[in-house]
Design goal:
Blueprint lengths: L13 H7 L4 H11 L6 H6 L1 H12 L6 H5 L6
Helix pairs in contact: 2-4
């Protein structure tokens, strides 16, 4: 059964998992380094080829990602 909640207790969404979930700080740091940015934002991550590829790598490591959240990754299409 898919829960709308992340394991940290917040509502699970691409934005939450990529930008703020406390359990994925290390992955977020790697994403920032790969993109050479100090802050992440969803638009470049989910609307550019490189951002999508890097986001998928991060989210692919998130085993609790629900099918509904995964479907929302196509926000720009």
């Amino acid at each position: 059964m898919n829960s709308p909640l992340c394991s940290c207790g917040s509502i699970q969404s691409p934005g939450h998992l990529i930008l703020s979930c406390k359990w994925y700080r290390k992955e977020r740091k790697k994403l920032k380094e790969a993109l050479n940015v100090s802050m992440l934002s969803l638009r470049p991550l989910l609307c550019t080829k490189m951002g999508i590829e890097l986001s998928r790598l991060l989210l692919g490591s998130v085993s609790q990602l629900s099918r509904n959240t995964h479907a929302k990754l196509h926000l720009c299409y």
